[in-house]
Amino acid sequence: MSRRALIVVDYLNDFAHPEGALTAGAPAQAIDETVRRAVEAFHGRGDVVVFASDAHTPDDPEFALWPPHAVKGTWGQEIYGTTGELARSLRGRKGVYFVDKTKYDAFFRTDLEDILRAEGVNSVYLAGINTSICVMATAQGAYFRGFRVYVLRDAVADMSREAHDFALRHMEAIFRAELVDTESA
């Protein structure tokens, strides 16, 4: 069996909402409808959908590098916008998973790989925030585990255009990620 999975990485209030602790601002807000459409399309076809979200403790060591963000159970850790509304409506549905993570790479010390293997997934499609941090780290994690990697270039955003563009080129060159638009995925 060969299946696909959409992994929505850190599309959270703290990274997208104008009042989020580490907001990527307008670029993050602008992709909400595109991310939501991707979730609808993948779920509608019976593909796996994973929402991989930062879920920190209040004393997380990462807060030495970044301001406190995405603390588990807070508004900042909730999935943003219309994508969040859809995610909440899909909770408990077949093929839809919610994975809490504490590092940039959604595979690091999570059950993401086990979920994908159990579902027969061999290709992962990435959407979310930040292209140059958690999306790129998750692309690397997927590549290292032998998954074919695709990045939905119209469904990722970053705090800076320069970092975003670099990350897309890097994932394409180093992890052999194929950059695709949501409509063609």
Automatic annotation (TrEMBL):
InterPro entries, per database record: Isochorismatase-like_dom, Isochorismatase-like_hydrls, Isochorismatase-like_sf
User: Which intervals hold domain Isochorismatase-like?
Assistant: 5-183
Name one molecular function that GO assigns to this entry: hydrolase activity
Superkingdom of this protein's organism: Bacteria
> Which keywords does this Swiss-Prot/TrEMBL entry list?
Hydrolase
Similarity comment: family membership: Belongs to the isochorismatase family.
Q: What is this protein called?
A: Nicotinamidase-related amidase
The species is Brockia lithotrophica
